[in-house]
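Holo prediction. Input below; ligand is zinc ion.
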Amino acid sequence: MANPTDCDLEAYFREELLKKYALKKYVLLPKEQYNNNIADLTATDTSAKKTPHEYYLLKKYEVLKCGDVFESIRRRNANEDPIYFATLEDTYDIIKRAHIATGHGGRDKMVKELTKNYANITHDTISIYKSLCIECQRKRPTTKGTVV
Ligand SMILES: [Zn+2]
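Structure of the complex:
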């Protein structure tokens, strides 16, 4: 890619995630699926008989209400801090923010930062982002020595 824009990079990033995690529903969470999960979870409380799908959701997720907004978090024990799920559409921006906040931090620094708050951002996802950051590519030392 010659001079890719942020938009190009995001599209490429999303494609890579779709390819890599097509079958891993727990990792790849398009916004539509995310909202459906929340709708199912909030409806479940009142239904007497649970479907296997509802059992699955209840085992994995919990819904957190922040003001008027419902968010899906990983099922937790009492007193545990909420761990959120990032939608496919938001993942790029979330990683980008963490990457900038850590001063173009390396993968391990970002993993530490992101796994604190998100249940479904994997090491590989972060690596894909890292490989796309133009600043980081520039900073990477080349194998050829610099002639002074
Ligand atoms: Zn960078």
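The first helix runs from residue 6 to 21. That is the main takeaway for now.
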